[in-house]
Amino acid sequence: MKIAVLISGNGSNLQAIIDHQQQSKNLYEIVLVISNRPEAFGLKRAQKAGIATKVIDHTNFTGREAFDEQMKIALDKAEVELVVLAGFMRILSAEFTEHFLGRMLNIHPSLLPKYQGLNTHQRALDSGDKEHGLSVHFVTPELDGGPVIVQSKTNIQNDDTAESLQQRIHTLEHTAYPTVVEWFAQGRLLFKQSKVYFDAKELNSPIILTSDNSNA
């Protein structure tokens, strides 16, 4: 399976997927990494791994639709079967999302539907939550609103800050995201009529990922 990863920055989740792919070379291949920011460090990570990269600078476009169209052209040309958003800091147009519906994943640093959007770690602290985590979901036109596949959680400690929570969530992300990408490549995940199916069974609630089922 050919996959592409869209990034805007450091690319730590990209690196986790690259590292995981080295153990699953016959399952999927990262054929393209696209960044909307020329200075994104994730581009260097991809180049070091021998992966084709492309910069499509969003500041060169007057509208979101024109920018998204250039990405769509590049992804279709590469015959991409799965698009993985990994720290891609752009809201996607409905047309782009519909084109890749059921073939695009995102990871969000909260236990969705809680805290859609930004500043999720501080918002969890401000709300006095006892736990925090991440969600991997299929992308739909609704921002951070697609059906959730997997969640991974951590307990919030009394001395936690937004920064300490972010660090722990990043660690969880680096296991959860490659796992879901692998499941999709194995044909175990399906998006159908706005619902998620795993191993041919409808998911009524997200899979809570632990060390015991990351290789389920």
Structure description:
This protein is an alpha/beta fold and 216 residues long. The chain has a single domain, classed as Formyl transferase, N-terminal domain (Rossmann fold), CATH 3.40.50. 31% of the residues lie in helices and 25% in strands. Strands 3-2-1-4-5-6-7-11 form an eight-stranded mixed beta sheet, with helices on one face. A three-stranded antiparallel beta sheet has the order 8-9-10. Helix 5 packs across helix 6. The chain is globular. The mean pLDDT is 95.
Topology diagram in text:
Layout: E1 2-7, H1 12-21, E2 29-35, H2 42-48, E3 53-55, H3 64-77, E4 82-85, H4 94-99, E5 104-108, H5 120-126, E6 131-138, E7 148-155, H6 162-185, E8 189-192, E9 195-198, E10 201-202, E11 207-208
Helix pairs in contact: 1-6, 5-6
What is Rg?
Answer: 17 Å
Order of helices and strands: EHEHEHEHEHEEHEEEE
Strand content: 15-25%
Q: Can you summarize the main beta sheet?
A: 8 strands, mixed
User: What would the principal axes of the Cα set say about the shape?
Assistant: globular
Summed up, the helix count is 6
What is the H level of CATH, i.e. the homologous superfamily? Answer: Formyl transferase, N-terminal domain
Regions with pLDDT < 50 over 5+ consecutive residues? Answer: none
**Which range best describes the helical content: under 10%, 10-25%, 25-40%, 40-55%, 55-70% or over 70%?**
25-40%
Pairing-aware structural class of the strands and helices?
alpha/beta
Question: What is the CATH level 1 assignment?
Answer: Alpha Beta
Q: For the residues shown, what is the average pLDDT?
A: 95
Separation, N- and C-terminal Cα atoms: 20 Å
CATH-defined topology: Rossmann fold
Number of structural units classed as domains: 1
Strand order of the largest sheet: 3-2-1-4-5-6-7-11
Please provide the count of β strands.
11
Instruction: Give the second-level CATH assignment, the architecture.
Output: 3-Layer(aba) Sandwich
